Amino acid sequence: MPHxxxxxxxxxxxxxxxxxxxxxVLAWARRAADAGADVVVFPEMTLTGYPIEDLALRASFRRGxxxxxxxxxxxxxxxxxxxxxxxxxxxxxxxxxxxxEPHAPEGPRRPTNQAVLLQHGEVQARYNKHHLPNYxxxxxxxxxxxxxxxxxxxxxxxxxxxxxxxxxxxxxGPVSQMDEAEVSLLVVLNxxxxxxxxxxxRVELAARRAHEVEAPVAYVNLVGAQDDLVFDGxxxxxxxxxxxxxxxxxxxxxxxxxxxxxxxxxxxxxELARTLDPDEEVYQALVAGLRGYVRKNxxxxxxxxxxxxxxxxxxxxxxxxAIGGENVVGxxxxxxxxxxxxxxxxxxxxxxxxxxxxxxxxKPMVDAFDGELALEGIAAENLQAxxxxxxxxxxxxxxxxxxxxxxxxxxxxxxxxxIYDAGSIGGFAPIKDxxxxxxxxxxxxxxxxxxxxxxxxxxxxxxxTKPPSAELRPGQVDQDSLPPYDLLxxxxxxxxxxxEGRPELLARGFDPAIVDKVLALVDRAEWKxxxxxxxxxxxxxxxxxxxxxxxxxxxxxx
Length: 558
Prior knowledge:
With 558 residues, the chain is α/β, with parallel strands linked by helices. The protein is 38% helix and 18% strand.
């Protein structure tokens, strides 16, 4: 008898676009059938997109998703794919009876995070996710009702267990019952957001579960981006001894096909995706994040200020890789303090990436404001920065571009940014979760990747090597106000990422004056961070969705 062939459809979906997501299921199911698959497994909440958040609480949305599910089942059969087993994710619902009143009438219907088997033109089985995460970026425990049943399906005479994402991250629950169910394979539908280093955690966890259930684990993950979250794909099948049998690339749609051999046979192996260098992985996550945000919000182009500095240079390169340089508009907005090399570097960058480059001097506008307000000192410096923000928003309003902010995590942490300026206004901040030291690393990686490919590096060398400066006064450099970035980022990593307090930082040998200055800057800047645009999350703790810090230091002195 032929072996069962499994296809993992690592696809990109869009939250709320049920019709388009259903069409994607049909298209990729066709590809799976053409590859000889007996079952195709899609990511978590395929039809609805992920995360749907409070959309799940709308009964009208749940009805629409269910209607799309039924239409998809019928369309598969009508298209000659009725024999193919199709596992998709969607929003379901179930009645909830109070635990302390088991014989009470059915309670209200609540949404569930559901996996559904479609075959022969109908819904054949449903499974509701048991474990609902309520940490980090997840809010599922509040939104969904948990499931309680086991799902085991038949694929060419083989027993295949089905669970959803968090079900394998928690001990007990449905996974603990799969060994008794004598499954030959455990498939896991996932929408697991990207964080640097998380791929290794997924593989190690899946290996542990494969050992527990005494069967391979097929892990299919969502790919693409939704708002600030990136889904990196990287789907794989892992054996009971922890060997990765086959894997899909990160950050691209892919159909991974694998044969489930007899239990007594050595497991089949297949293609293995290239492992990305850490800097390449983060860079590709940033590209995917910006591309997804632009496309899924209906934009075709982006607009940013080009200062000649490293932050705007890296963001422009990311934008060119995400949507094409011809769809990037870069505006140089020199002041009387702007250096010639900054203006030259901005123009050079634009030429390298093929951007629409424009120059808009700000002196006439600064003079007009100054004539009315007679500003001095910091107020006069910040006026220049804010005028640049106004220019970008005006061009955006006139031409329909999405303004993107080039601020980095170090600046955001310390408040070293002028609120409403060209570095903080707009709809999206691609490197919001990247510290300054990593900005230089990523710029170096991108240029080296271009050289390896025989291409012109996108970022001018002088943008990488010159001291960073806002150029709002003569001779200004960032280190006038901040510690050196390598030291600053080390303190920030300990304080923000690892939640270390002042005593721990001093115990590690940091200068008390540096520690007190950095912690005070971070604590005071929360009000600025709360007004900053959304940006791609690449670390375990990103400002905004994951983390807030206090606006006073009293808590540290208590």
